[in-house]
Amino acid sequence: MTSYASAGVSIEAGDRAVELMKEWVEKARRPEVLGGIGGFAGLFDASQLKRFDRPLLATSADGVGTKVAIAQRMDVHDTIGFDLVGMLVDDLVVCGAEPLFLTDYIATGKVVPERVAAIVKGIAQACEEAGCALLGGETAEHPGLLGPDDYDVAGSTTGVVEAESLLGAHKVQAGDAVIAMASSGLHSNGYSLVRKVFFEVAGWDVEREVSELGGTLGETLLTPTRLYAKPCLELASAVEVHAMSHITGGGFAANLARVIPDGVSVRVERSTWTPAPVFGLVGELGGVSRPDLESALNMGVGMVALVARDSAERALAVLAEQGIDAWECGEVLDVPGGGVELVGGYRAV
User: Which strands make up the sheet holding 98-108, listed edge to edge?
Assistant: First the structure.
């Protein structure tokens, strides 16, 4: 007799996964959330938005990309959620939006309840750190499309910002200081290049101890994405911030250019920071040129803020108070074009 289970889908495993993740989802709540896990839709009390004069809703959807292959290779699944949340909420905060809630989607070849619960645990912990509710999600079992140990994660998030407080290119002006915020490592971009270099070109594996990295290759590659939402919201409330840019796929210059108006341009001094060793290793082992590295990887900077010149010193102090290593790396110039130029070489160790 043919059944859903014999076709590769286990309803019981899905139910067990839901039971295991409940504890973590419950911790990632906000007062506006109504109901609990298990409904067809998550409910958020929008009456709380009455505190805004003109609330603008911001939304973002993203995934983690091929970094999930590292988690699967190492059989460590409770950190990849930080990468998902980072890719989502930090896209919202660049416009000044406070993340309100997030929903996730996990597709897997076979539902292993403990593995799914570990993934959701990471998502929930990251939501809690970002001040965002994990409002709901979906786990889908796709036998025949994905291998039993394969999975992918994606999600979407919604935030809100007061219209008058909206950040962006419309506020950027000549003389603004460019403030760089350190990344925790590779974050969640460029992993197709990174995996090719380390696993195919160099022939390394995740268990390899690498002295330059201070541990195994796998530990470095799986380092979670840094979350900037709360520190950046604190920064925007404390000093005159004009725009922010989340440094993800495309690299520093291309992402920063997205918030630079045509009437000005930006010069960034590479000599103001030293990228972590993993970036140099990708270049050396793979013979990857600096332009290619800079277009695929964040090179040590995960977020950038453009602040009024007289706010620069205070901005660095606020970020330090929030536990974010930051420095002034450039300036906005009164030169038309809207471009971003990185000059000089990176600072040596």
Answer: 55-63, 151-162, 98-108, 133-141
Tens digits of residue pLDDT in 285-318: 999 999 999 999 999 999 999 999 999 999 999 9
11-165 and 169-343 share one CATH topology?
no
Q: Does the reported pTM lie above 0.85? A: yes
pLDDT average, residue stretch 333-337: 96
Residue 127 has pLDDT above 70, yes or no: yes
Return the domain boundaries, the chain: 11-165, 169-343
Q: Look at the alpha carbons of 190, 192, 194, 197 in this order and tell me if their dihedral is positive or negative.
A: negative
Q: Residue 21: pLDDT above 60?
A: no
Distance CA 227, CA 36 (A): 25
The DSSP 8-state label assigned to residue 132 in this structure reads -
Fold classification of 169-343 is Phosphoribosyl-aminoimidazole Synthetase; Chain A, domain 2 (3.90.650)
Residue 349's pLDDT band (boundaries 50, 70, 90)?
A: confident
CATH of the structural domain 11-165, one choice from 3.40.50.300, 3.30.1330.10, 3.10.580.10, 3.40.50.1370: 3.30.1330.10
Helix, strand, coil tally for the chain in percent (to 5): 40, 25, 35
CA distance 130 to 82: 10
Burial of 71 (0-12, 13-18, 19+ CB in 10 A): buried
Q: DSSP labels for 187-219? A: TTS-HHHHHIIIIIIS---TT-EEGGGTEEHHH
CB atoms within 10 A of CB 53: 8
